[in-house]
Structures are given as C-alpha cells and as structure tokens.
Design a protein that fits this description.
The protein has about 270 residues and is of the alpha/beta class. It has 2 domains: about 180 residues, Rossmann fold; about 70 residues, no CATH class. It contains 10 helices and 12 strands.
C-alpha cells in the first residue's frame, strides 16, 4: 500500500466550552488521489481542514505530513509541501494574475528565471495564459477561482487542501474547476482533499468520498461503493434516492415534509 502524504490518527477537536466536533477520527490522503470531504453543515469539515493545516491544535490525536509530525515542520518547509485554498481567498488589491502566482513561489528561494518558468507552466495548465497580466479584480468569479487554484498549484505542493472551491460558481464553471483539480491530482501525484456540498459533482470527479457526520467518519471509499441512498439519508437526515443515469447514477434528496403538504385542487376556485 502506498504511504499517505498526510494522515490523521485518533484526531479530536472541541471548541472551548463545547462538545467535541469530532473524535477518534482517522484519515489518510494518498498520492494521486482526489478525495472529497462531505457532510452536513456544522459537522466540522472546515475545522478538520484547519487542523490538518496546523492552524488549529487538535484536542487529541496525531497529524503527520510525509510521515513527520506536522508540528515539527517549519512554516516555510510546510508551505513547500502543503497548499490551501480557503472559501474566501484574500489577495492584495491591484495584483495581476502573474504577480499572484509569483508570490506563491516565495517558500522555494529560487532564481527569478526559475519562478517565471514555473508560473508560465501553471498558467498554461489551467488555461490562464491569456489573462496573465490582468488584475484579479477585473476577472469573473470563475476566472478568479481558477487563479486561486493556480496559486496553490504554483507552490508545487505534495498535498492540496480546498474548502468549497466551487461555492457560488455556475454549473459549467464548477465542472471545469473540478476537472482541473482531478487533473492536477493525477498528473502531479498530489494528495487532494476538497470540501464539497455537492454529492453528485463530487461523485463525478473524485476518486474517493469521505462523509463526516455526528463526530465521526460515516463512510469512506470510491463513489460507486458508498453512494447508498439509505446511508446518505441517515447522514443528511432527509430522504434520498438513486436516479439511474448513463454517466453514473445520481442521488436526489427530497424533503419528506414537503411531500406531505396537501396539493391544491385545480378544480377549486381560489
């Protein structure tokens, strides 16, 4: 079995004065694998990512990056191996796409020529070369999110953590972004963990789905093996059904309460 690039063992976290969000949680991110982390709102997905980044200290458990305790990595060394795309990235006003990507090479302490070579390569990979000299503020939401993904990839990480990268994007742009993430995981042999709320989109692109709910991992495995309507209905506390589709079955969630609402009689006058 391939050794994980980032792993968590018996991990627990609780905010002060609150019950643990999760406990005894095990997670292993393998190279070349695109994993989506799913679960209900408030179950601890973003908190887990912050623990894996070293921004929050777990209440218990162990996190290892390349089989070395995460806490023993210096910030610069960690930045060369671990990249993060938050829900709402912050970028200084007026920076061009190319300048944003150049800044991502700072941890590598290399020549300007080496930086420019890597920046140009990533711009081509994500289809941003025509926009390289445009200010970020002049781009559409989808283009700007591709820039943020490109910034993370320009770091040349071994592990990529993303927090709802397709949030508020239109369907076509979401598909393109997830396609780029999957491509990067497979091409560069990255371990990718991506928080998502779209079960069907995650199942279409991810190699592995991990569901977090009620303080623990409820299911973990290839989409075809774990997309069970009964399991998902329990996780999300709503009705779920499988819809056959030529490209892979889909899951449809429904609100049982809505189905019990009496329908209006079309023959009755208002």
């Amino acid at each position: 079995m391939t050794a994980p690039l980032l792993s968590a063992s018996q991990l627990a976290y609780a905010y002060p004065g609150a019950q643990p969000l999760f406990s005894r949680l095990d997670l292993a991110l393998a190279p070349g694998q695109f994993t989506c982390l799913l679960g209900p709102n408030g179950c601890g997905k973003t908190t887990l990512l912050r623990c894996l980044l070293g921004r929050l200290r777990p209440s218990a458990g162990d996190i290892r990056l390349l089989d070395k305790p995460l806490a023993k990595w210096s910030p610069r060394a960690r930045a060369r191996r671990l990249a993060y795309l938050p829900q709402r990235p912050e970028v200084a006003f007026g920076f061009s796409v190319r300048e944003i990507l150049r800044l991502a090479r700072f941890p590598h302490r290399e020549s300007a020529a080496a930086t420019e070579h890597r920046v140009n390569a990533v711009l081509e990979q994500v289809g941003l070369a025509p926009l390289a000299d445009r200010p970020l503020q002049s781009l559409s939401g989808g283009e700007a999110q591709r820039v943020m993904l490109a910034r993370a990839l320009t770091q040349d990480p071994r592990v990529l953590l993303l927090d709802e990268p397709a949030n508020q994007l239109d369907p076509r742009t979401r598909l393109r972004l997830y396609g780029l993430i999957r491509q990067a995981a497979h091409r560069d042999n990255l371990a990718v963990l991506c928080i998502s709320h779209d079960v069907n989109l995650a199942a279409q692109y991810a190699d592995r789905l991990t569901f977090l709910a009620d303080g623990r991992i409820q299911a973990d495995g290839p989409p075809g093996e774990i997309l069970d309507p009964h399991l998902l209905g329990r996780i999300y506390r709503t009705a779920a059904e499988r819809i056959p589709h030529p490209g892979g079955d889909l899951i449809r969630f429904t609100d049982p309460a809505a189905e019990t609402t009496p329908a209006a009689n079309p023959d009755e006058s208002p």
